[in-house]
Specification:
The protein is an all-alpha fold. Helices cover 55% and strands 3% of the residues. It has helices at residues 7-19, 23-26, 31-49, 72-90, 94-125, 130-140, 164-176, 178-187, 216-224, 239-244, 250-263; strands spanning 2-3, 52-53, 153-154, 160-161. The chain has a two-stranded antiparallel sheet with strand order 1-2. Strands 3-4 form a two-stranded antiparallel sheet. Helix 1 packs antiparallel against helix 3, helix 3 (31-49) runs antiparallel to helix 11 (250-263) and helix 9 packs across helix 11 (250-263). The longest helix has 32 residues, at 94-125.
């Protein structure tokens, strides 16, 4: 499935965002709940303006992962080769074996030639782009593919956690407690290690950090500074869409951020490990 990002879709999205009052978000208590409601409303308008479209109907002999150099006539030839292979296995007569070998040779010859022509054109097309050339080379060598799998962490009790939210929570708990753990280790020492560090320390302060409230102008400026990157993933929104109408919801985001600062709570939905 894919989404169409045309001017008509952009206008629909901007109209929906402009007409939205965000009252449900502003009336919600708690920064995490506010963010969840904002994401729900924003995603609803996004899906309305940019609905998922089913891709075109596949050709009769098209593969599930078609190669760009395999033309329709070559797909039919490969399908014929597979049929001859079946006949060769089920009825291994000399005629069936000869027919399969002849057709296999034909398919291999034209597949290799088509692949060679395709990549020759690609390198010629991107002769001035080293980055594109290396992308093609890495694709040929099957390099750069990320291995996906489930993360597993074991807590001090010996139990394992593997869900994204649980893994993220474990990391947050560990890093937020580093200072307290180091302090407890230092306090438990029986012998004092004089290093002269006391003369560099100032008196303790009850307000060691201050987060000034943000506003719509700062949020809008931050969103506008993001690079306008596009994506082929239908589940991820291109940044440029948010840039075009960020002034319509920047006030709502600033309200969520200020609530998070006041509560000292980071929205739970943004902790998910990806």
């Amino acid at each position: 499935e894919t989404r169409l990002f045309r001017e008509a879709n952009h206008q629909i999205f901007e109209q929906l965002i402009q007409a939205e009052t965000w009252e449900d978000v502003l009336n919600t208590e708690g920064s995490s709940s506010k963010y969840n409601k904002f994401f729900e409303v924003y995603t609803k308008h996004y899906n309305t303006a940019y609905p998922l479209k089913s891709q075109r109907i596949r050709r009769k002999f098209e593969r599930s992962d078609p190669k760009p150099w395999i033309l329709p006539w070559l797909e039919e030839a490969c399908a014929r080769k597979n049929k001859l292979f079946h006949e060769k296995i089920t009825k291994p007569t000399s005629e069936n074996i000869a027919a399969y070998e002849r057709h296999e040779k034909f398919c291999k010859k034209h597949t290799d030639a088509a692949k060679k022509r395709y990549y020759k054109k690609q390198f010629e097309k991107f002769k001035d782009s080293t980055k594109k050339q290396w992308t093609i080379i890495n694709g040929l060598l099957n390099r750069g593919k990320k291995q996906t799998g489930t993360y597993r962490l074991r807590d001090p009790g010996g139990s394992f956690v593997s869900t994204d939210s649980a893994v993220a929570e474990k990391f947050n708990t560990y890093f937020s407690g580093i200072a307290a753990n180091i302090k407890s280790q230092i306090s438990s020492r029986r012998t004092f290690d004089p290093g002269g560090f006391n003369e560099y320390l100032l008196g303790p302060s009850s307000q060691s950090i201050y987060l000034s409230p943000t506003n719509a102008l700062e949020v809008n400026k931050t969103i506008s500074s993001l690079k306008n990157k596009s994506t082929l993933d239908s589940k991820i929104e291109p940044i440029k869409i948010a840039n075009n109408c960020s002034d319509k919801f920047s006030c709502t985001i600033s309200n969520i951020v200020n609530s998070s600062f006041a509560e000292g709570i980071f929205p739970h939905a943004l902790k998910t490990a990806k």
